[in-house]
Write a structure and sequence with these properties.
15 helices, 17 strands, about 20% strand, signal, PAE/NOTUM
Length: about 425
């Protein structure tokens, strides 16, 4: 029977690699050849999960309903438009009954009144526009074969509707905008604690993109919610935003972050270990704040993050002649000089984690893919052919770090050496 699972799992992996996948934002995921099955980790749980994956995908992902926090309004913990914040929760069971995984949703930032007025009419600014049910996949999956370490935990997805990485505390009465991310964070944590999270003996705070940045900012706050005997750690996916010059020499992302920090009044809510040394705007960049995070922290990031390439490294505003149009959307269209520029960005990312890597409590998985957010998608989190560095995938690397099974500090070789990447290509 095991040989049958081996063969079917292998054939499914090959089939997956022949497909081009389309995502909701009109992007395509190009699948490369999978890692041979014999190179998977020797952990039997991971092997069995890989072989059973083909069967699991016959069933659709778990759909989880939206819970609004009714007590939030009285505390002023509201979305940009004044509506109630919310989250999706699926209860744990068995060995995971007292374990909690809280994931903070991402969705960019609004750094001006005009942009925030637009955002408050979307799901990233109002619970009125949020989906009533969302799929739990990747690190939120309830299937052992898709999420071996966390499938039976209490798993929560906190919706993002403040435009400031859950960190602002201000408002603009004229535009009827509420920048209450910090209050939303607090009231959601209070609600979850009342629903059993206070009994957790294991907890993991995670997030992707703007949510990944929020996971770094709130990591130590999250740790203080639990007794010292609990195992509490944090995971940031695609949240390592760098303060580096764009292709024109201008610091586009610094300008954007300055608008977010000042507009939303988040100066007092950023990590004090950083703000005592730097301007608060500088502390919104994780490269300066990760050193002051005392709680164990894991970074999942690509060295060629597609969001940073499009928005902060080669934005249209800095590309007056359109030289980067093709490369910005499709890595295969990058010229040699453009790849050299992106290799410089990779070098700066590796430099940014140099001090972080000296602390054994931390971990990271920095691969050489053109992607953004890899823990939320099943094909990149854990599946046949998912991205690997040497013999380890993302889910296994995170699990090894969280449960102290092994040191997990992996840096990929430079592009184009990694043939396990699931690259994003934009139309």
């Amino acid at each position: 029977m095991m040989m049958l699972y081996l063969w079917l799992g292998f054939m499914y992996g090959l089939m997956m690699c022949s497909l081009t996948w389309k995502c909701v934002n009109c992007s395509e995921f190009e699948h490369s050849q999978p890692l041979p099955l014999q190179d998977w980790n020797n952990n039997v749980t991971y092997k069995a999960a890989a072989f059973a994956y083909a069967y699991a995908r016959r069933t659709p992902p778990l759909m989880v309903g939206l819970t609004l926090v009714n007590a939030a309004a009285s505390k002023g913990a509201v979305c940009l438009d004044g509506s109630l914040p919310g989250y999706h929760i699926h209860r744990g069971y068995g060995s995971g009954a007292n374990s909690w995984l809280v994931q903070l949703e991402g969705g960019g930032w609004c750094n001006s009144i005009r942009k925030c007025v637009f955002s408050k009419k979307t799901r990233h600014g109002s619970s009125h526009y949020m989906e009533k049910h969302i799929p739990f996949e990747g690190i939120l999956s309830n299937k052992n074969e898709e999420n071996p370490d966390f499938y039976n935990w209490n798993r929560v997805k906190v919706r993002y509707c403040d435009g400031g990485s859950f960190s602002g505390d201000s408002q603009n009465e004229a535009a009827q905008l509420y920048f209450r991310g910090q209050r939303i964070w607090s009231v959601v944590m209070e609600d979850l604690m009342s629903k059993g999270m206070r009994y957790a003996n294991q907890a993991l705070l995670s997030g992707c993109s703007a949510g990944g940045l929020a996971a770094i900012i709130h990591c130590d706050e999250f740790r203080h919610l639990f007794p010292r005997t609990a195992r509490v750690k944090c995971l940031s996916d695609a949240g390592l935003f760098l303060d580096v010059p764009d292709i024109s020499g201008w610091r586009t992302l610094r300008y954007m972050f300055a608008g977010v920090v000042m507009l939303q009044g988040m100066q007092k809510n950023l990590p004090q270990g950083c703000t005592k040394r730097f301007n608060p705007i500088m502390c919104f960049f994780p490269q300066r704040s990760i050193a002051s995070v005392r709680t164990p922290l894991f970074l999942v990031n690509t060295a060629y993050d597609t969001w940073q390439i499009q928005v902060s490294l080669a934005p249209a505003s800095a590309d007056h002649h359109g030289y980067w149009n093709g490369c910005r959307k499709n890595y295969a269209r990058c010229t040699g000089s453009q790849i050299s520029f992106l290799q410089g960005f990779r070098n700066q990312m590796l430099y940014a984690v140099r001090g972080f890597s000296r602390l054994k409590k931390n971990g990271f998985f920095i691969n050489s893919c053109f992607a953004h957010c890899q823990t939320e998608r099943q094909d990149t989190w854990f599946s046949p052919g998912s991205p690997h560095i040497k013999s380890k995938g993302i889910a296994e690397s995170v699990g090894n770090w969280y449960f102290d099974r092994a040191v997990s500090m992996a840096i990929d070789c430079p592009y184009p050496c990694d043939n396990t990447c699931h690259h994003l290509v934009f139309k």
